[in-house]
Amino acid sequence: QVRLVESGGGLVQAGDSLSLSCEASGGTFSRYVMGWFRQAPGKEREFVAAISWASTSKYYADSVKGRFAISRDNIVNTVYLGMNSLKPEDTAVYYCAQFSEHYSAVRVTEESSYGYWGQGTQVTVSS
User: Fold this and answer.
1) What is the pLDDT of residues 70-98, one digit of tens each?
2) From CA 14, how far away is CA 72, in angstroms rounded?
3) Which residues contact 61 (CB under 8 A, 6 or more apart)?
């Protein structure tokens, strides 16, 4: 059974940077697209970023493009989300997720493409 554990959330001020980590266990991490999603209070969960299994392709939501960077280390089974120039509207619970199918990158922005989810980590950006 795949287990995903996020860390690195916290309270920061607008303009600050923060880095999230998500460590995977129980599966073959290096074969799967990994994604980050977020859910703000009162809103639906939304796609943030995704990275292919060999880091050759990266995908970003328009709202974070140029500010956030996704990366992964298949040796330590961890995916990262570097967040710069944070805004109050980035406040949300951030979730990492593992794609359902290995070696596939179809519909990476859709929640239904991911089969495993972490418990989430809170990011709060004050103005």
Assistant:
1) 999 999 999 999 999 999 999 999 999 99
2) 26
3) 46, 47, 48, 49, 109
18 touches 38 (CB < 8 A): no
Instruction: Measure the CA angle with vertex 27, ends 22 and 28; round to 5°.
Output: 95
**For residue 59, what pLDDT is reported?**
98
Task: List pLDDT tens digits, range 52-64.
Answer: 999 999 999 999 9
Give phi and psi for 10, each to the nearest 5.
170, -170
Contact present, 33 and 52 (Cβ < 8 Å): yes
Q: Which of 93, 74, 84, 72 is nearest to 29 (CA)?
A: 74
